[in-house]
Fold this sequence. Notes:
Layout: H1 2-30, H2 37-49, H3 51-72, E1 77-85, E2 92-95, H4 97-112, E3 123-126, E4 132-144, H5 146-213, H6 219-253, H7 285-305, E5 311-323, E6 332-341, H8 349-415, H9 421-455
Helix pairs in contact: 1-5, 1-8, 2-5, 3-5, 5-6, 5-7, 5-9, 7-8, 8-9
Amino acid sequence: MFKIITVNKSLKKLVAWKAALSIPMLAMMTYPSVGQSRLHDYITEGLSSNQSIKQQNFLLERNVLALAEAKTMFLPSVSFSASYTKASGGRTIDFPTGDLLNGVYSTLNQLTGSSAFPNLKNESIQLFPDNFYDAKFRTTLPLINAELVYNKRIKGQQVDLQKSEVVVYKRELVKEIKTAYYQYAKAINAVEIYESSLALVQEGKRINQVLFDNEKVNRAGVIRSANEVTKINAALTAARQTKESARNYFNFLLNRPLTDSVKIDSITTLPEFSALLAGDVAGREELEKLRISQGINSNLAGLAKSYIIPRVGTFIDLGSQSFDWNFNNKSRYYFWGVSLDWDLFAFGKNNYKIKKAVAEQKSISAQTDYIAKQLETELRLRQNQLQSALAQYQSAQSQLKTAQTYYNDELKLYREGVAIYIELLDAQNQLINARLDANIALFDIWITHAAIERANASFTF
Length: 461
């Protein structure tokens, strides 16, 4: 009598474990998702902490500063320069002052009866200025300079190009964060499935041992149930390692310590993807970058042609120059002028620059067409993957319901002593596999959803 009561209690426990096994999947099938606010928070954190994006933002800042520098080239510039010379020797200019004037001065002294006109020596003037300074402020201003105009345009386009590059990095990071997040959520659910399954097979092993002790079953059931415990234990260990690896990679993307905890939203429903299946690649920043590159190359061609336009500028010097550091009305000066530079002949160098820019422009145009088709192909591939993943999900849900019903029926027959343990074990394994397949199918849809968001640039920052 005692043995019969023990067996009945064990079977009741098995029924309880069966209910525990089925509840999580039923929740996935019926309960709505509570949203993914935590994922959005992680995306915000990742965008602000990722080192690659920081590097791209530094490059953007550099290009913005280069544009500001190009704009200042149109404004006046003021410089100060000074020089002082001390010299002795070198070439001289001989000036015969005495030979020219001494005869005249002698005659004047005789006529006046005085010595008011002394004799003069011939002069030897040194060409190098001795004890001489020159200090001035020079202001220059370009009036006509096509090179500066094209340079400013190119710098502005480089800023736009780098902005697109930053967005490309952000979109790729968002996709990686979402994918890693869903992979981690999938791993968590797999661990939970294996944990509940382990409890179930352990209870089954205990029940079979009780039945064997009461001579209700043979030893084969005990051995098989022990093997199932070993198998689920191994699968659980692998699932936990996968979970840890997924967490580490997710934290790596967020630039956090790898072992930091990650909180996961409850994800039980499918995403809204009707708009994604009708999207295109017109908003991809990669195409925008190529369009900007074409504009830059067009301006480079214009820059190469700018040699036919003369460069005109003006300048004014305000300074002082004199000997012995004298500073007075005679030492101060201003010096104003207009300059013109015109490249007339350079042995075909400018023509080669123009031809090179035109060839580069043709190359970019061909590359744009190729990349556009490549991106369109990628989008269509991702959309087909989403439809395939949806079909897999629907099939997994159907198989889960069938496996659950099959397991319930086999458990009932096993309790009544009609079915053998091998049949119950087969139903149990089918249910475990169905749960795992449903879990994989659900998150494969979300991962593909993130890939399509990347493929058609539909994620909004």
